[in-house]
């Protein structure tokens, strides 16, 4: 498909011819390739460099301050949804020093490629965040990506169309400067092993992901670019030790239910006008009635009492 248009750029007229390639798509974005040809009269070629430079700056501006999420489609990664506004790290309230530990580790890793190459160690690092639901594993990883200016490649291992080859390929073509996020890694193999008896036809003619395929793909994830893989699970004890041995998972971190400190901090963030003593009172009362409270529950409770900090304390027993 071809279109022709005349456009003004500064004081010059240029002809813009766009040709859409039928069979080719950009592997990283899924958009079809287009050839754009500019023609202008005159001898000054600088005009073309200026156009390209301007286009580049505009494209970068669009993603500035945003986190792009990719999902796997066939053999490619495609962005899904619009790039999200970066989530600040401070908006995810974790137990003291936990966020710093991970952020420092990742930054140290990204900043030292030579250390790895000098020692012949593959330049990749694996992280496992584990703990009960709704405590901030995914939110923290999203905020971390924002802090680093990285995108996120989100992948579910329970995806039935995932085979060893496909996973291997996807991991090797992941966009540069991205975090690969494998969520709920425990679910993949438990559920998969049950499936063939339920529906023996489901896998006919289709390769499926095997546990050793997963291990091989993770081991193969290495390039001159820093490769960061995050896995999350609610049940660390269901994971095969081979999956989380050093080299595949280099840093494990428990992300648990709210402590007194987290509860006060969340209260402050939500009701910044309130005195510290109220935040303290909220935390104390919440822990007196509930032994385990996730940050997601607290967030939901505050949303029910948006303009009513005292009400959020008085009704703390209803927190669920
Ligand atoms: N530590 C936290 N600080 C601030 N908000 C949080 C925190 N944990 C969770 N939330 C809020 O709760 C919701 C769910 O959190 P999130 O998806 O990050 O939890 P998760 O630990 O990844 O859960 P799951 O194990 O179910 O995937 C989000 O809206 C998030 O904003």
Please report which band the strand proportion falls in: under 5%, 5-15%, 15-25%, 25-35%, 35-45% or over 45%. Answer: 15-25%
Model regions low in confidence, pLDDT < 50 over at least 5 residues: 198-206
Task: State the helicity in percent bands.
Answer: 25-40%
What is the CATH first-level class name of the largest domain? Alpha Beta
Average pLDDT metric = 87
InterPro entries: AAA+_ATPase, AAA_lid_BCS1, ATPase_AAA_core, ATPase_AAA_CS, BCS1_N, Mitochondrial_chaperone_BCS1, P-loop_NTPase
Domain AAA+ ATPase: 123-259
Main location: mitochondrion
Keywords: ATP-binding, Hydrolase, Membrane, Mitochondrion, Mitochondrion inner membrane, Nucleotide-binding, Transmembrane, Transmembrane helix
Helix-strand layout with pairing:
Elements: E1 2-9, E2 12-25, E3 32-40, H1 46-63, E4 66-67, E5 69-73, E6 76-79, E7 84-85, H2 98-111, H3 113-119, E8 124-130, H4 137-148, E9 151-156, H5 164-172, E10 178-183, H6 185-198, H7 211-220, E11 227-233, E12 251-254, H8 260-270, H9 276-289, H10 295-304, H11 309-314
Parallel strand pairs: 5-9, 8-11, 8-12, 9-10, 10-11
Antiparallel strand pairs: 1-2, 2-3, 4-7, 5-6
Helix pairs in contact: 5-7, 8-9, 8-10
The protein binds adenosine-5'-triphosphate (ATP).
Short description:
The protein has 320 residues and is of the alpha/beta class.
